[in-house]
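Homework help board

Subject: predicted structure for assignment chain

Our instructor gave us this sequence and asked us to write out the predicted structure in token form, then describe one feature. I got the tokens but I'm not sure how to describe them. Can anyone check?
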Amino acid sequence: MISRKSVNECIVAGHTIPPNTLLFVNIWSIGRNPKYWENPLEFRPKRFLEPIKTGDDDPITRNFIDVKGQHFEFLPFGSGRRGCPGMVLAMQELLAVVAVMMQCFDFETTKSVDMAERPGLTSPRATDLICRLKLRMDHPLKMLHNPQD
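My token output:
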């Protein structure tokens, strides 16, 4: 949850919010709201590549959503001046690590994937995802350290 304090009186969805009211934005609930996400409980990463209905003639895809907090249906790093200070580093590192892992390994699950959740700070899975990594090449680390060879 993200907490914020209202500065002025405002109206949100027909409700009057007095000044100096402590508000909590329930990101977990927004991320599972069928108003914003078709079949929100279904694990479907490709949904971020699908067109968004913007009302314009030129729909955009979710992979162009600004994760800095301007599209409030998706707030992985929070929003505003109290958003995650490590967002840029996290996005760069994620891209680099995933790219190297995809280049060097094949991933296999040891059993079916269960997306049920259990209570926790970061929405952990009820059943851990266990993957087996298989090398795609004989010496992936050599390739990473000596790309000219």
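Reply (TA_rk): Your tokens look well-formed. For the description, you could write something like this. The chain has three helices and eight strands. That's the kind of observation they're looking for.
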